[in-house]
Amino acid sequence: MAEREVDDSQGRAARSVPLWKMLPGLMRDPLGQLVALADSAEGEILRLNLGTVRPYLVTEPAHVQHILRDNEANYTRGGQSMLWRPVRRFTGDGILSDGPEWRASRARMQPHFTAKRIDLLVDSMSRAISDAVDEFDEPARTGRWLDAGTELGRVICRAISSVFFADRVSLADQLRIVAAQGTIVTALRARLLLPFVPDAVPVPGDRALRRAIGVVDDIMLPLVRAEIANPRDGDDLLAALARARDEHGRPLDERQVRDDVVASFATATETTYAVLTWLWPILDAHPEIAERLYAELDEVVGTDRVISRDQLSALTYTRSVVDELLRMYPAGWLVPRTALADDVIGGTRIRAGSLVVVSSYITQRLARFWDRPDTFDPERFRGDQSRRSHRYAYFPFGGGPHQCLGMYLFNLEAPLVVATVLSRYRFRLREPGMPPRQLAAALRPGRPVVMALTPVRERRPA
Ligand code: HEM
């Protein structure tokens, strides 16, 4: 199955895996095949031979740490990197790029997303989520089917919009942006799967991508222009970036503001939506875990509408369910880089200019680091068991200087959404069973998750 390249320079050459030989399995279950390959390599770095593109597949936690943190300067997201080049058509050259533009964006945005800053949002976010979840009362009474993804999109927008644009973008426009992002994520699949095709050569999805970017720009650009012309005092990201100055003391141009607000809103909604949509089929498939979760919610939240800070801290099982969701379905499953200079990792030589692929999905399912890796088991994240063998055996939010900016936001928002919905309603899926995984920029379910809700009990008046 694998051949070793001949190389007499420093470090040994990576074992080359001719992926075309595995094509039938790869077509059926690409991620499953890559996990099996990584398991059999026992930590060795592999070179996946896809013909014109030959990425290194790096799965060992210590090697992941080398790329994302210890020698991160050698591994860039800039240039022609897989995933990032097509993503930048939508998000521009700011926070999702690399080099000086990224550094400047990160420095401007970081203060908005610190643990301390996010902690101040507990009460307002909990209220916003409660108000959004109130809208399930009617479909729960009538038994109407709901698309979990669409409904979660609405709840998530209500939860986080104040962080991004105060009340400047209506819920309807936010939902149009979220829908356009869905089109973009899917339209980018061809570029993701065909990283060697230059931008000038059209691939399926290009037209849908352009149209969807147009939808976002039609909403955001006039707004950004108006904010720059008349800066506000607000502490939302849009107001702050519209007031910001670059290192020469000049205001940012409208493109810079648009790119960073759009990039962070898109990553915030897309990832949260993707992870939480997996929750329903998972709970449906594991009634004992669902019961345990309901018991905690019953005890801690009871009939309260708005979850308090103390209640949130007491929701430890809910937290573990979310952590385990992030292990098995990490939305940011693919973290590619391009090596700038030759390097040696664990004795294997990495050649300058080549693509290096790190994947939380693969590492978080390695049998050497995870007992029963394909079993959903929140107990892994409880008490003593939560001690990891290696920091980078679990890295749903990446690591090093590019570590997810929204980690604290997600860690606040996700348990609040889960607890608010499931303390009030039980659900029934229209189509039981786990959906296939859609390999797009985020790891989404490959079919809609449709469900009906029923109220747990009569609600206490507000
Ligand atoms: C389930 C939730 C989320 C997951 C799994 C996730 C995952 C990730 C990962 C793996 C990275 C590292 C990318 C890299 O190293 O190249 C990242 C970066 C990033 N994430 Fe998240 N993310 C999530 C939620 C959010 C939220 C809520 C926000 C809202 C602000 C956000 C904003 C960002 C941004 C702006 C970056 C780029 C940071 C940088 O390069 O400096 N993410 N995320």
Automatic annotation (TrEMBL):
It comes from the Bacteria. It holds the Pfam family p450. PROSITE patterns: CYTOCHROME_P450. Its cofactor is heme. Keywords: Heme, Iron, Metal-binding, Monooxygenase, Oxidoreductase. Belongs to the cytochrome P450 family. This is Cytochrome P450. It comes from Micromonospora peucetia. The lineage of its organism: Bacteria, Bacillati, Actinomycetota, Actinomycetes, Micromonosporales.
